[in-house]
């Protein structure tokens, strides 16, 4: 049996040619910057001589995640599904801050800290997948108490060979100091990979450390409302006679803001990586910005192109 949605709540078409044109334009702008980012990733990743291997690997991973979130946002914006983009934009912002932190100074040390912390976390997951370990047994006891546990299962495997492999790597002299420091942090519940040399215990403090406290306060907290469903009542407009309007699904209201911020964080991330690691690409970056982004970025900041769309009143 096929079920059709209530069109006022879940419209399958945008229904407004001007809005559709703007959304398509926003999406294509993000795609252009995403494509540019992929070129820079290739330039950084293949440079196995001029860039330290830890810095090259970690920065490449951050940039890859940034363009993946840009890719997802471009698709959602084109379909008028703006609000779910805040989840991707939140992660894009986090990777933007991580890049600024790693490339600010002590690049090799910070990239190596990220690598060691990754191995530690990977080891924890491996232990939980093994039903014979203490962590594996604890997890399975918790699952027994979950009312939906019968509908899903977790991978079960013998993890001894994997944990032994990780332990062997962590015992290498170049990682011993970092492993010891992370063990100390675990005891005082400060276990972020970026906490070793600046004592930042949260992304908020890390943002302040790299000079981004303003954008964290003004924007990241705002994104978090969508991540944690803290502003859902804003989508209901109570009226007289027991009626109420709902903001439609696929509402384009925030598409312009999301596009502006996606371009800002994406471009700034690429600029930071290029200036620090591949300055020979800076001319290409500057030319692209002037020819493709400068005018559009100004218009996104100074003109309101998208308005909220409410569904019809419901009793």
Number of DSSP helical runs: 11
Query: How many domains, in number, for the residues?
Result: 2
Identify the strand order in the major beta sheet: 1-2
Mean pLDDT: 85
What does this structure look like?
It is a single chain. By secondary structure, the protein is mainly alpha-helical. The chain folds into two domains: 1-9 and 18-106 and 203-315; 109-196, no CATH class. The chain has helices at residues 17-45, 53-78, 85-104, 107-129, 134-144, 160-170, 173-187, 203-209, 213-227, 255-277, 282-302; strands at 236-238, 244-246. Strands 1-2 form a two-stranded antiparallel sheet. A hairpin with a 5-residue loop joins strand 1 (236-238) and strand 2 (244-246). Helix 3 packs across helix 4 and helix 3 (85-104) packs antiparallel against helix 9 (213-227). 27% of the residues are buried. The model has no long low-confidence stretch (mean pLDDT 85).
Please sum up the structure shown.
By secondary structure, the chain is mainly alpha-helical. It has helices at 17-45, 53-78, 85-104, 107-129, 134-144, 160-170, 173-187, 203-209, 213-227, 255-277, 282-302, and strands spanning 236-238, 244-246. It has 11 helices and 2 strands; from the N terminus they run αααααααααββαα.
Topology:
Elements: H1 17-45, H2 53-78, H3 85-104, H4 107-129, H5 134-144, H6 160-170, H7 173-187, H8 203-209, H9 213-227, E1 236-238, E2 244-246, H10 255-277, H11 282-302
Antiparallel strand pairs: 1-2
Describe this protein with a few key phrases.
315 residues; mainly alpha; 2% strand; globular
């Amino acid at each position: 049996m096929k079920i059709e949605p209530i069109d006022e709540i879940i419209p399958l078409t945008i229904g407004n040619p001007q809005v559709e044109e703007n959304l398509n334009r926003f999406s294509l702008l993000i795609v252009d910057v995403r494509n540019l980012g992929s070129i820079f990733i290739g330039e950084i990743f293949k440079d196995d001589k001029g860039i330290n291997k830890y810095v090259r690997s970690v920065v490449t991973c951050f940039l890859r995640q940034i363009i993946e979130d840009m890719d997802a946002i471009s698709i959602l914006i084109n379909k008028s599904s703006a609000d779910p983009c805040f989840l991707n934009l939140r992660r894009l912002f986090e990777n933007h801050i991580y890049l600024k932190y790693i490339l600010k100074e002590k690049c090799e040390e910070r990239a190596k800290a990220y690598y060691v912390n990754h191995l530690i976390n990977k080891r924890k997951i491996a232990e939980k997948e093994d039903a014979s370990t203490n962590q594996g047994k604890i997890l399975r006891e918790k699952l027994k108490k979950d009312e939906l546990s019968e509908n899903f299962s977790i991978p079960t495997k013998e993890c001894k060979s994997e944990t032994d492999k990780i332990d062997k790597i962590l015992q290498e002299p170049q990682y011993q100091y970092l492993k010891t420091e992370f063990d100390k942090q675990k005891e005082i519940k400060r276990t972020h990979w970026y906490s070793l040399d600046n004592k930042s215990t949260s992304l908020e403090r890390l943002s302040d450390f790299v000079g981004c406290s303003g954008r964290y306060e003004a924007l990241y907290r705002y994104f978090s409302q969508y991540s944690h469903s803290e502003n859902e009542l804003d989508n209901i407009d109570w009226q007289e006679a027991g009626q109420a309007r709902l903001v439609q699904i696929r509402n384009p209201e925030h598409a312009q803001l999301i596009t502006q911020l996606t371009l800002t964080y994406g471009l700034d991330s690429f600029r930071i990586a290029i200036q620090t690691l591949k300055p020979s690409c800076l001319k290409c970056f500057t030319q692209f910005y002037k020819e493709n982004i400068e005018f559009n970025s100004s218009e996104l900041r100074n003109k309101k192109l998208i308005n909220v769309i409410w569904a019809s009143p419901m009793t």
